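Here's what a typical entry looks like (Sulfatase-like hydrolase/transferase):
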Amino acid sequence: MQAKRPNVVFLISDDHRDEAIGAFCNTVIQTPILDGLVNNGVSFRNTHIFGGLTGAVCAPSRACVNTGKSIFHTMVGQELHKCEHSSGIRPDIKLMPQSLRESGYYTHAVGKWHNDKASFARSFDGGDKLFFYGMSPHTQVPVQDFDPTGEYPKEREYIEETFSTQLFTDAAVQFVEAYNDESPFYLYVAYTAPHDPRTAPEPYASMYHRDDIPLPSNFSREHPFDNGEMLVRDEKLAALPRDAEEIRQHIADYYAMITHMDSEIGRIVEALKVKGIYENTLIVYTADHGLALGQHGLMGKQNLHEHSVRIPLIMSGVGLPQGRQITGLSSNIDIFPTVAAICDVELPKETEGISLLPLVSEEEGAIRDVVCSVYKDVQRMAMDGQWKLIRYYRSPISGLGTDRVQLFNLMEDPWETTDLSTHAIGAEPKERLTAALEDWMRVTGDFLASSSPSSLVD
């Protein structure tokens, strides 16, 4: 047992893809605070989300982060095979903040909680500016104060007009400044940025001009086939076929939201330093998923390309190495076990994630040979760090989608532009990843595991 366990500031954003950070070789976006956390800590550069069974990927993804478990073993709902919108976490599942709370941490939440109120209530001792929805206008945010009863009825809501990112940061800073308990704290700050509507305040809104924004090399005017989710809300946020100038503006607005959030995170970091507790605080930054914004002709997160499933995961402080970017594979269900290991908190026995600390200490070069992701009943993905396979299905429920596979060599083609699924060079990795994906689906309880696809057309 450590003499004094670290405080934890856990920051999670909405829609922030891995590459949209300056320290990760993006030469356009300005993220000096996140860059500082990268340079002062450890970044897990191959972290992928488990996925989701609903277009609102944020709810199941946040459930995976907070439970360290497969969504098939975590989410409430007897009709998951029909992919209904479910945000509830089973009442018998123990969450990360709940485990820290039971271990002696004072747990406090600020911002978005897109899962059920019961799981929130059993996880936190306190909270402020609590938002129980998926999205809202950033200057019209329906929030609640902490409710000791845990019920959070709708009539308790009130509208805050302060921009959401500042609103949540204000509450987080106030908590840090006021906290004087001897127990370590776990502060969970969940932003709704950079989720649309991407309406960053000035001066951030004017920081990026669309003429200065390069199009990604995988920009496409349209997706080449029906991936099973071409009509979701996110895909209607830009005209079809995609217009290059419109996409550049979307990216400019996206970067503005991230830079504003970065600046606000800096206020929390500064509050920790002024309080004199920065050195004994673990700061974690991650996101619930990424976003396409014109890549592959898509706009949203309802797909399994890298822009949508690969997320930033940065941990800084409490003796962690500085400036290390780790390429070993990891999943967002591994975040809880890693935080628990750093904080000397016992994991629930049913946790399926794996601590990433062996990667940090270099005791092991890899803890996973393959990472996989799911999307509804229409897409599955497996990747081994070099090769990536995406399996598409025709939905038995909606009839949408296409039976086919794609295979990419991410080492040579990180933007996933060249499908090698029918090339001789892809035969071995295609067979190997197909088998690995099927095994993973069985182990995680995927309802498609027993499916026998009728074809794998090219």
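DSSP finds eleven helices and 18 strands in the chain.

More examples are in the samples folder.
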